[in-house]
Amino acid sequence: MIREFVKSFQPYKVVEGNYRIWLDKNENPYDLPGWVKEEIFEELKDLSFNRYPHITSMPVREAIADFYGLSPENVAVGNGGDELISYLVWLFEGEQVVTTPPSFGMYNFYAKLNGIPVVEVPLLEDFTIDGHAIAERSKNARVIFIASPNNPTGNLQPEEEIIKVLETGRPVVLDEAYAEFAGKSLWRLIEEYPNLIVLRTFSKAFSLAGVRTGYLLANEEVVDALYRVKSPFSVGVMTMAAVKVVLRHHELVERRVAKIIEERERIRKAFREFTYPSDANFLLMRLNAYEFLLEKGIVVRKLSGRLDGHIRVTVGRKWENRELIEALREFLEVRGCG
Ligand code: PMP
């Protein structure tokens, strides 16, 4: 009954168990404080739960547009950035989806799901993109995905290389899911490059992974096209209320981002030899320590392919990072490298 094509997809791997410390999904380790949740609950009281949400999510697009000083016509929101990626692979003319592995898996996932060929232009040795190589191979691309900071390598991509890709005129999705931790974003370039789509999310710096909201900033024409084909009611009234409230407390988000950056650098310093520099809320480590950490009750992400023998570790709360550092020190001692 089920198509072979569907069976060719792996089921989602759910890591379940009595683990103490979860550093595997690049989440924000800090939940919203109670007083911010109370504000959200207050907003919820006045909402009509029996009615569908606004069909093009205008209330929350306006709030995001105000935050950036843009027009709501430059903003689209989705049920997580993932939902937006699912549309971005088939919105534009052209043939292939271009990706730069090792990078975020959902670009390839949605391309495959839609039967779209993928051209892979690997990252260079230092995990930066080769703008010239991407441009060369994107002549007939329908869309090019570049993550900056990149997941799972953590590095920002050089602006001049991104510009080389933008100059092709082909649609470029610059995935800035972790931009707040880098303190740098190229969103302002949407005014100069109508082919630039900047993808952002509330899942990371804003602590709203469970609420599910991603958004993109782009030219009006792209946003208009997206809303012609997007699932009509995928962003619910509760989600929109939560986002609006959190946007009012940006200073809280900034303080937490600063804390996470400080902790990130503390972990990196402890294992400088095995850890790549990061502009995100996670670290790529050249340590084959996945199973060892799991036994200690710490869940991280095990990587494969070109990053075989590496782990990706989300920066957690201070005590979690302390335990991680202790466990990794022990791992190195056991291996005789300590
Ligand atoms: N882009 C990148 C690079 C990511 O790592 C993630 C989340 N892991 C997303 C986009 C999507 O996040 P969300 O769907 O939670 O908005």
Automatic annotation (TrEMBL):
Enzyme class: transferase
Reaction(s) catalysed by this chain's protein: L-histidinol phosphate + 2-oxoglutarate = 3-(imidazol-4-yl)-2-oxopropyl phosphate + L-glutamate
Pathway: Amino-acid biosynthesis; L-histidine biosynthesis; L-histidine from 5-phospho-alpha-D-ribose 1-diphosphate: step 7/9
Modified residues (N6-(pyridoxal phosphate)lysine): K204
Domain of life of the organism encoding this protein: Archaea
Alphabetical keyword list: Amino-acid biosynthesis, Aminotransferase, Histidine biosynthesis, Pyridoxal phosphate, Transferase
Cofactor (UniProt): pyridoxal 5'-phosphate
Gene Ontology biological-process entries: L-histidine biosynthetic process
Domain Aminotransferase class I/classII large span(s) in chain numbering: 21-328
HAMAP family: HisC_aminotrans_2 (MF_01023)
Protein name as catalogued: Histidinol-phosphate aminotransferase
